[in-house]
Amino acid sequence: MLEKRNFYINGQWVAPVKQNDFAVIDPSTEEQCAVISLGGQADTDAAVAAARAAFDDWSQTSKSERQGLLKRLLEVYNDRSEEMAQAMSMEMGAPMALSRAQQVGAGSWHLEGFLKAFEDFSFERDFTSSEKTLLEPIGVCALITPWNWPMNQIVLKAVPAMATGCTMILKPSEIAPLSGLLFSEFVHEAGFPAGVFNMVNGDGAGVGSKLSAHPEVDMVSFTGSTRAGIAISKAAADTLKRVSLELGGKGANIIFEDARPDAAKSGAVRCFRNSGQSCNAPTRMLVHKSRYDEAVEMAADVARNTHVGPASEEGKHIGPVVSEAQFDKIQKLIEVGMGEARLVAGGLGRPDGLNRGYFVKPTVFADVTNEMTIAREEIFGPVLSIIPFESEEEAIAIANDTPYGLTNYIQTEDTDKRRRVARRLRSGMVETNGQGFAQGSPFGGYKQSGNGREGGIYGLEEFLEVKAVSGWAAE
């Protein structure tokens, strides 16, 4: 078992002020794989003080110096990528193939994207011939990240903060902390100055809320549940710090009558990826009535043929969900769904042959209406709800009838319709015909899916203040 009780503060690994052991559970086996310590107010204060002390010098470093360190960080990340893949697979249950290619790959992809965006990024912009607009680091940033895509979210926050001259405190998810600890090692190996990057493990009450309310923290960037995002916003309000939130989703995947033949199949595969634990998963499949029956059967077939197994296994399969609490929540919602809609695949309990581990059957419900619980709540598991529609207007109305607004999906060969519908969907992202987003594309949502944008130029600007200076030109 791994013992990882120390925190990374001011360039050193330090013991918690007060030891508070917390077991890290391997979701494939339900057995303890590591122990960390949960921090408290004193640990939080120490990390914030280190970040505050480092800010003046770090904020004045040159762009080229920060570029060099980020390039070195990418080298370390790539050199130690197998360690990271193993850590994420063990802590949150991503199968090794997924962990290597997508979980680890997301981190390196975003880091590369930030380096490209940073290349031509200017911190000084002419407003008039005599007035200059300066973009300056906001200050000390608290970065609170989730367990479902650990490196994706840590890199999307830490790297732009570093690039723009901010200092930071990372609080990874206590459920899946091993990747955050390893990333801290990468930062140290890359040679960042002491205090620029700090890491404290802890839960929401012990560290997250303390960071959110801390008077010496200038910004909180949080990814997680909408419920927690609301709590963080309230905690941050007293000090009027900036809050950037990437929260839940309940994405609609609209399959029109002229969609490609395999649209429902690919949509179901996407829904089940990462065991359904993605905020941008297309969990509501809206299908034109002319294609409805075939879509239901196609999605059910995907569910029945999706192999579920331990994260340590090689191969293309989905692993467990992250924890017992998550497993229980999903089971309760599946049970609710069985009383609301027509179950066509999956259902309650573990898949056959798996009697330990937090494994969930890929599940498909048909004849769902948008008023049902399973259509409104973010289940965060491999559960798909299929809803019929008759007209374009009805599809748009159903898609928008949700408190969330992160990612929606459109499947049609009609270019005018695709563009028309995309303009009317109330979400931060609209993916059409399975075409993924480019490197550096802004990631974020409308409504209760949060505010702010991550990735590329937009992600860099998120960590900057805007200063207007008159009389810049020499008289």
TrEMBL record:
<keyword id="KW-0560">Oxidoreductase</keyword>
<dbReference type="InterPro" id="IPR015590">
    <property type="entry name" value="Aldehyde_DH_dom"/>
</dbReference>
<dbReference type="InterPro" id="IPR016163">
    <property type="entry name" value="Ald_DH_C"/>
</dbReference>
<dbReference type="GO" id="GO:0004029">
    <property type="term" value="F:aldehyde dehydrogenase (NAD+) activity"/>
</dbReference>
<dbReference type="InterPro" id="IPR016162">
    <property type="entry name" value="Ald_DH_N"/>
</dbReference>
<dbReference type="Pfam" id="PF00171">
    <property type="entry name" value="Aldedh"/>
</dbReference>
<protein>
    <recommendedName>
        <fullName>aldehyde dehydrogenase (NAD(+))</fullName>
        <ecNumber>1.2.1.3</ecNumber>
    </recommendedName>
</protein>
<keyword id="KW-0558">Oxidation</keyword>
<dbReference type="InterPro" id="IPR016160">
    <property type="entry name" value="Ald_DH_CS_CYS"/>
</dbReference>
<dbReference type="InterPro" id="IPR016161">
    <property type="entry name" value="Ald_DH/histidinol_DH"/>
</dbReference>
<comment type="similarity">
    <text>Belongs to the aldehyde dehydrogenase family.</text>
</comment>
<feature type="domain" description="Aldehyde dehydrogenase">
    <location>
        <begin position="13"/>
        <end position="469"/>
    </location>
</feature>
